[in-house]
Amino acid sequence: MLDQLKDQPADKILSLMAAFRADPRPEKIDLGVGVYKDAEGRTPVMRAVREAEKRIWDGETTKTYTALAGDPAFADALVPLILGPSVPRAQVAAVATPGGTGAVRQGFELIRMMSPGATVWVPEPTWPNHLSILRHLGMTVRGYRYFDEATLAVDADGMLADLGGVQAGDAVLLHGCCHNPTGADPDPATWSKVADLLRSRGALPFIDLAYLGFGDSLELDAAATRMIAGSGECLIAASCSKNFGIYRERTGLLMAVAGDEATAKVAQGNLAHLNRQNFSFPPDHGARIVSTILGDEGLRADWEAELEEIRTGMLTLREGLAAELRRLTNSDRFDFLTRHKGMFSRLGASPEQVEAMRRDHGIYMVGDSRINVAGLNARTMPILAQAMVAAGL
Ligand code: LMR
């Protein structure tokens, strides 16, 4: 029977990781997968994570199962971090999931349970795995305009015009902050118009929040999510991979914000049921790290400080790259780099230009010209700038 299987299409981001590893050139530069790297190219274990792990190791007396929704302390710590005072806690159903991707997958499945014929609207472009999971689930997908290739900013008019076509019972995927792959986020006025539009059409917002704290601050990056959650029902898939740097621990949370407590209770039961069907109990170690950090004043302050160092470090790289390109080209056409948020920027290069930068300079970025800003450092930043100019950008 196994001979009935066909090769699956390669994941663009993961195959880029493999191609980078296989390149023997020592001067190669990895701007591919969305993993934070410091100036030495390392992805460090954050200080507070290390300390929390020590405390867990000292204090943990059992490895028995937690609950289908995960240890309640995890949701109780993460929900307020994300939603602040925007929604009463009792109106939020939440379950731990294997990473943000697990939350995304379960969110799509919940949409299918609630609204079997739903169309899921996704921004064009979006994280390729969103599309791949939706395809795998056999769900109907439609793109909405999001990114203006000319200005390399959000196409707010196009977005609102396309979302005007959503139907009651559809779901609309939104990136809560630090849009992946473009780095372009809507401004607050556009966010409010999107929220009003979706409410008026009876569509469900589904927010993917994978980079909280990488854009402007923990608070500001949560603002759009809070505004939407405060305005009615929505789903939120949160990842702790990036902001806690615990990628391999697979730590995510799926939240369903309901209009009242009774509905939230039923949603909670359904989310736990979905966990049981897909993998039973969610991973616990990363979730325990997060609740340990957020529940301890000192660890939390240290985590926030280190996250801020990471955020401002990426900002400095963005500004440095834009300044270098201003100097090299005598123009401000690359200043969009400083307006993009978080880890990624789409440069607006053609596939041929992306290929030329890889071939001639050993610079690896995703084929749509998405760079991971954190892959740069003070030494490699001018190399990228020169390669961009040499490639004719
Ligand atoms: C990315 O977009 O590079 C990250 O979210 C990692 C991944 O799994 O694709």
From TrEMBL:
Q: Which residues form the signal peptide?
A: none
Q: Which UniProt keywords apply?
A: Aminotransferase, Pyridoxal phosphate, Transferase
**Cofactor(s) required for function per UniProt:** pyridoxal 5'-phosphate
A Pfam family in this protein?
Aminotran_1_2
Identify the residues that the record assigns to the Aminotransferase class I/classII large domain, covering every copy.
Answer: 27-387
Give the CC-aspect GO terms: cytosol
Name any one GO molecular function: identical protein binding
- Which Gene3D superfamilies does this UniProt record tie to the protein? Aspartate Aminotransferase, domain 1 (3.90.1150.10), Type I PLP-dependent aspartate aminotransferase-like (Major domain) (3.40.640.10)
Keyword Transcription attributed: no
Which CDD domains would you find in this protein's record?
Answer: AAT_like
GO biological process: one example: L-phenylalanine biosynthetic process from chorismate via phenylpyruvate
Q: Which family does it belong to?
A: Belongs to the class-I pyridoxal-phosphate-dependent aminotransferase family.
Q: How does it assemble?
A: Homodimer.
The name of this protein is Aspartate/tyrosine/aromatic aminotransferase
Q: Give the source species.
A: Rubellimicrobium rubrum
